[in-house]
Specification:
Helix content is 73%, strand content 0%. The protein is mostly helical. It is globular, with a radius of gyration of 19 Å.
Length: 236
């Protein structure tokens, strides 16, 4: 068995929980997209090239309001600002992955990041291909869910109010899982505290970027303490 096949077989079990979540979320997105009058082609293209669950849900309102490049850019930065910190923390992990690195960066969603932080492949498994297949499988699940939702939305018509809450529910589940698996809760408490404080100061529409800056500053100051208690990724 070649190294790619071994890496694929090793990666697949880690992605199955994401499969369950992404099929549901992707289906919800596809249904909502169809309800706005956009065909299955839009579901495929947005899931292939945007591939950011939260931003894809937000993009529905952007599409409905008419495209404004500057506003779309600022909104994307605000919604996905957390990925700046994901990327920084994965710099060392992606070293030596060669041509796979651009896709690993592009495909780094919340769930993929969580798996790459916690999954440890066996010594004989190529780490680059292992991370690549985790990332690829997760995106396949999302695209598949979006297609399924678009098809269902075109066949079955119903009131879609409230269906986008599935994204919020997923974030809550991720938070609980991370809390249970972590031995040191400083990063989580930092995020909660900074977000609540910035929400009180800046308001609901402007608190995300200030809270991200505050989190980055605090985590940088206490980096040595956090790393010493083994709360960073342990994928070797």
């Amino acid at each position: 068995m070649n190294k790619k096949a071994k890496a694929f077989r090793a990666a697949l079990p880690y992605t199955l929980p994401v499969f369950a979540g992404y099929i549901v979320l992707g289906t919800a997105y596809g249904i909502l997209l169809n309800s706005k009058g956009y065909s299955i082609i839009w579901a495929v293209l947005t899931s292939l090239f945007i591939y950011a669950g939260s931003m894809q849900f937000v993009s529905l309102s952007l599409l409905a309001a008419g495209f404004h490049p500057f506003y779309a850019c600022i909104m994307t930065l605000t919604v996905n600002a957390r990925h700046l910190f994901y990327g920084i923390s994965m710099l060392s992990k992606f070293q030596g992955t060669g041509g796979k690195k651009p896709y690993l960066i592009f495909g780094l969603t919340d769930e993929t990041f969580s798996i790459l932080c916690s999954a440890t492949p066996q010594n004989e498994i190529d780490k680059g291909w292992f991370m690549f297949f985790i990332t690829l499988l997760d995106q396949i699940y999302w695209v598949s869910g979006s297609i399924l939702g678009s098809i269902l939305g075109s066949i079955i018509h119903f009131n879609t109010n409230g269906i986008d809450f599935v994204l919020t529910a997923l974030f809550i589940v991720i938070f609980i899982n991370q809390w249970k698996s972590a031995t040191n809760h400083i990063p989580v408490l930092t995020g909660l505290g900074a977000s609540i404080l910035c929400r009180m100061i800046f308001g609901a529409s402007d608190f995300i970027i200030p809270s991200m800056i505050a989190i980055l500053f605090i985590v940088t100051v206490f980096q040595n303490k956090i790393e010493s208690e083994n709360t960073t990724c342990h994928l070797q």
